[in-house]
C-alpha cells in the first residue's frame, strides 16, 4: 500500500510539474520601411514535430513597425471567435511555411483581404497574394512583399529592423 501511494504521489508530482516551452522569435522585413517582430511559445515536446499550428501555440504576440517606430501590436490572448488566426510553423527547419491548398498560409489577426484586424488594431497576413499588414481594418499595400519570401524562426529576440543574423532558421 505504501509503495502504491509513493508511486501515485510521484505520478501526481510529474503531472503538476510545469511543461517546458519552446520559444521562437520572429522578424519579418516587409516593403516600404515596414517590419515586424514577435515571440511565440509552444510545448517543447513539439520541437521535433513536422508542424506546429495555432492550436499548439501557448503564447503569441507580434509588434509592427514603420521605420522602426511601433505602429501596432497583437497578442493571441486578445483573440475572439471572430479573429482570423491561422499559424503553421515547421520547428525542424525553423520556417513558417508559405504553402497551402487554400492560398492562406499565415493569418495573425488579419484575413486574406487584410481588413479585419480591428480598430484600433494590427495584424499580419501571408497568402498567395503577398505578405502584408493590416492597421485599423485597413490593408497596408505599401507593406506588401512577395508571397514566397521565407519567414524564419529565431532563437533570440530580434531588433525592429530585422538586422540580427538568423540563429535557428535558414532559407530553403
User: What is the CA-CA span between the terminal residues?
Assistant: 57 Å
The radius of gyration is: 18 Å
User: How is the quaternary structure best described?
Assistant: single chain
Number of domains: 1
Give a verbal description of the structure.
- The protein has about 170 residues and is mostly beta strands.
- The strands form three sheets. A six-stranded antiparallel β-sheet has the order 5-4-2-1-13-8, with no helix packed on it. A five-stranded antiparallel β-sheet has the order 6-9-10-11-12, with no helix packed on it.
- The C terminus is likely disordered.
What features would you highlight for this structure?
172 residues, mainly beta, six-stranded antiparallel β-sheet, five-stranded antiparallel β-sheet, 1 helix, globular
Amino acid at each position: 500500500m505504501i509503495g502504491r501511494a509513493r508511486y501515485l504521489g510521484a505520478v501526481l508530482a510529474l503531472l503538476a510539474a510545469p511543461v517546458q516551452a519552446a520559444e521562437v522569435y520572429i522578424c519579418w522585413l516587409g516593403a516600404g520601411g515596414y517590419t515586424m517582430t514577435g515571440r511565440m511559445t509552444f510545448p517543447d515536446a513539439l520541437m521535433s514535430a513536422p508542424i506546429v499550428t495555432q492550436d499548439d501555440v501557448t503564447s503569441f504576440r507580434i509588434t509592427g513597425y514603420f521605420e522602426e517606430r511601433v505602429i501596432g501590436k497583437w497578442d493571441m490572448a486578445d483573440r475572439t471567435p471572430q479573429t482570423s488566426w491561422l499559424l503553421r510553423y515547421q520547428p525542424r527547419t525553423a520556417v513558417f511555411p508559405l504553402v497551402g491548398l487554400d492560398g492562406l498560409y499565415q493569418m495573425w489577426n488579419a484575413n486574406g483581404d487584410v481588413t479585419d484586424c480591428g480598430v484600433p488594431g494590427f495584424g499580419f497576413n501571408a497568402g498567395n497574394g503577398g505578405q502584408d499588414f493590416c492597421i485599423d481594418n485597413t490593408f497596408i499595400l505599401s507593406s506588401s512583399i512577395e508571397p514566397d519570401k521565407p519567414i524564419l524562426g529565431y532563437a533570440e529576440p530580434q531588433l525592429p529592423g530585422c538586422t540580427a543574423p538568423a540563429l535557428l532558421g535558414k532559407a530553403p
